Amino acid sequence: MTKTIRNRRLRYSVVIVAVIALVAVFVIRLVDIQVVQAAELNKASSAKRSIPVTLYGARGSIVDRNGTELADSVTRYNITTAPRLVKDFEGKLGGTRTKDITVDDALAAIAEASGGDAAAMKKAIEANPKSDFAYLVKGLDVKHYETVQALDVPWLYPQQQSARTYPTGATTGNITGFMGTDGAQAGLEYAYNKCLAGTNGSETYERGEDGVQLPGSTVTTKEAKDGGTLQTTIDSDLQYMAAQDIADAAQQLGAVSATATVVKAKTGEVLAVADYPTVDPNNVDGTTDKGAFGSRALTDTYEPGSTIKAAIAAALIDQGKATPTTGVTVPYSRTFPWGGTIHDSEFHETENLTLTGILRDSSNVGITELGSRLTEQQRYDVMKKFGLFQPESAIDYPGQPGMQYGASPNWDQQTDINSMFGQGISTTAMQVASIYQTIANDGVRIPLHFVKGCTTADGTTIDAPDVQSERVVSASAATQVTDMLQSVVTGGTLVGMKPISGYNIAAKTGTAEVAEGSKGYGSERITSVAGMAPAEDPQYVVTVTFTKPQANKWSSGAAPAFRTLMSQVLEKYRVAPSTTEAKTYPSTW
């Protein structure tokens, strides 16, 4: 009996110890879960039910002088899912009758509604079937997004984002530049990225086990901030005209490329800067010419040829070294003591030409005869004042050439001579436009610019260019050069150009030889025309340039495009016709 009682007590003791041990295990586990691992487990739990969402700050617009959008941000949608929640469901799938819908049926319907690929969607889901996130289709516009939403698939989660669009397309693509997967890639998008870029924000919401968002659970953790608006001086309508004019002309001439600029003479505002070929920022991959990703008018350097002669003439008059009627004897060619030779573009007998006649006939020999009355330093300094040999100070645009020349010229004797007729020195089309803006504006240079500034979300304007003006030559010198340039149109190298009825035009042609490295100059040319109107009170400056034309390698080939564009400018801005006859000086003596 006693032995039985002892056995029972032993069993009770073992059971009690076992119970205590089991309770201890549970207590330890509970402490481990609720105390030791609490933070980590809470974080993991929250991660499964708390869904972060990026709030996109819209990129600011780029607009023309009238507020027309050249670049804008639009809303796009990514369609995402949680693969672990993807399953068959009961629904209408955009129809009117409730039915059992398989995953394959749903994906097929999503693909049809979005233009996506059902197989690619299924692959994305199956890549990690236990995950909480996968992209099904990206970048849907509002129409396609709404069509997908109407399917009412329970395991789809839209994600809103901002995308870039360019309403004027290739017309202004050379100016705006474009965005890529890595951000701003070219043009104003790149140069003014800091102001244009929006700041993204974030919010979170919680969803249940079935993947449905819990009402009232959204919390904004950071507000999104939209980017600023970049205001340009470009007239998008005129830009379109300029782009069409030079594209048509370049194709007729068989030119490799072409540029055109239109400048408001009294303000230095660039109204149009067109390039051919150019890039469509809505379809960058469709542009095979990588040189078209920017603006050749701003980034490509070339030897300008005879358009530079107007600056030399202005300096001669300004410094009292010549007048419009100063005469010199001009042979066809000229040989120098060091053995160098220059000649005019066409053979002629020795002539007695005035400075006006030299500009009219575009004589290389004549301009060097008179230009040598200025020292090498004087000519260098005045060309630099006109805007040559340096980047455009008021234009922020990627790819502009550095052109950081020194305070004094370092060229050889031949280059010194050649520089007077635009060979041996480098310019851009925009810099040539700057020369003629200065002459048109009574000798006062205003840095050319096509951005007014960037207005931030809070209304503050930043990035306004410094357009402080500088007198280059006297008003009298500028006026006399303008008058002389009318002779180019009425009886000189542009005499074959059909007049613009009712207007006096002052212009200069340029036909520059293209260097071929160590081979010297070859047969290719760069032809151009730069001019202003109306000549008695110039309001607008127009330039056109064609690289390596084949059908006509003389500046006369560039004249029709110049005339067309200048006519459009005068008509568009309702410029009053000239009321006086063109003023000219004697061309010979």
Describe the structure.
The structure is a single chain. This protein is an alpha+beta fold and 589 residues long. The chain is 34% helix and 23% strand. Strands 2, 3, 6, 7, 12, 20 and 21 form a seven-stranded mixed beta sheet that branches. Strands 14-13-25-24-23 form a five-stranded antiparallel beta sheet, with helices on both faces. It has a three-stranded antiparallel beta sheet with strand order 1-10-11. Helix 9 (236-253) runs antiparallel to helix 18 (559-572) and helix 12 crosses helix 17 (475-491). The chain is elongated. The model has no long low-confidence stretch (mean pLDDT 90).
Q: Any key phrases for this structure?
A:
589 residues; alpha+beta; five-stranded antiparallel beta sheet; elongated; 23% strand; 34% helix; 25 strands; seven-stranded mixed beta sheet
Instruction: Quote the distance from N terminus to C terminus.
Output: 155 Å
Number of strands: 25
Oligomer: single chain
Sheet-strand content, in percent, reads 15-25%
Content-based structural category: alpha+beta
Gyration radius, to the nearest Å? 36 Å
The biggest beta sheet is recorded as: 7 strands, mixed
Could you say which overall geometry the principal axes of the C-alpha atoms support? elongated
Can you tell me the residue ranges where pLDDT is under 50 for at least 5 consecutive residues?
A: none
- Report the average pLDDT across residues: 90
Helix content bin: 25-40%
Number of helices: 18
